[in-house]
Amino acid sequence: MLLAAGSPGIAADPAPIPAAGQAAAPADLRLALLAIRINGIDQPDPVWVLYDADALYVTGDAARAWRLVLKEDDTRLFEGETYLRLDTAEGLVAGLDDATQTLSITAPAALFMPSSALLSGRTDGPMTRSGIGGFLNYDLSAQTASGASSLDGLFELGAFSGAGTMGTGFIAGTGNSGDGRRSLVRLDTNWTIDDPARLRSLRIGDGVTRGSTGTGALRFAGLQLATNFATQPGYLTMALPTLNGSAAVPSVVDLYVNNILQNRQTVASGPFALTDVPVVNGSGDIQLVVRDALGRETRVTQSYYAAPQILRRGLHDFSYEIGVLGAISRGRASTMARRSCRRRIAMA
Q1: 139 lies in which domain range?
Q2: Are 160 and 134 in contact (CB under 8 A)?
Q3: pTM of the model
Q4: Exposed/middle/buried for residue 86 (C-beta within 10 Å: 0-12, 13-18, 19+)
């Protein structure tokens, strides 16, 4: 039974609120500033509570501060403020202790707003505009045997600006001493335009098609538009596990991967999700330990499998090529157009 402040015969323990019935007329409602205790945890600030013998109402701001999800089909307007009925939520029990002016609320975890924590620590930093410059990479090899010597080198020469990167590679060598032969073989020459915001690159010139399952790679000259995750170093493409749980009161969650503590999080009351759990490739076990303020523990163990070939949800790995194949037959170049695609589609 809900009793108003100052009523005789008030019990020391909170009394449960009766089942919801017809709301009383606004003239019968009373307003009181009460201390709040939710699932045994005292809240830092008192709130205004509108009540009568059959119903309890609190403001929407108070419910959001407690992270409680209340129905909005039964409200009261009092002195310009909208109040939501508290005791109609399924599974919620509320009681008023007039001796301490405390409203005690017991609610299941499902009535609280869900929360989530991202464990991968991914951050997308701002892009820096490229300057103007050039580079020369080289790899030299010298050898001598039986009076013969040779000097060979692999070179890559390029220039870059905000418009892209132009580069070419070639092999140069002197051959064996005494034969007078020199060699110079050009490798790939292309112009590459990177688009880090969209994780893709456009390549014009020489290139190699992206092989897929059951098909090989081809060397060609032409255009290639393809996903390039390397434009954002450290970007996670692999699908990582997500663990879900719930806590009736604020708790500490310990996350173990293959019996090794990987993370410790403080979670609020209600359902929670730990996304992008850091794991190693292959199969293993994840254990979630939820510990509340009273030391009560709940343990959940789940198996997982992770591999680089499994993309994160929503990622699209593609490559579109059109051009001329490297092989020439009967004086005519063979044209080609090719597409490879790999996508992770979000499943319900």
Answers
A1: 133-234+314-343
A2: yes
A3: 0.61
A4: buried
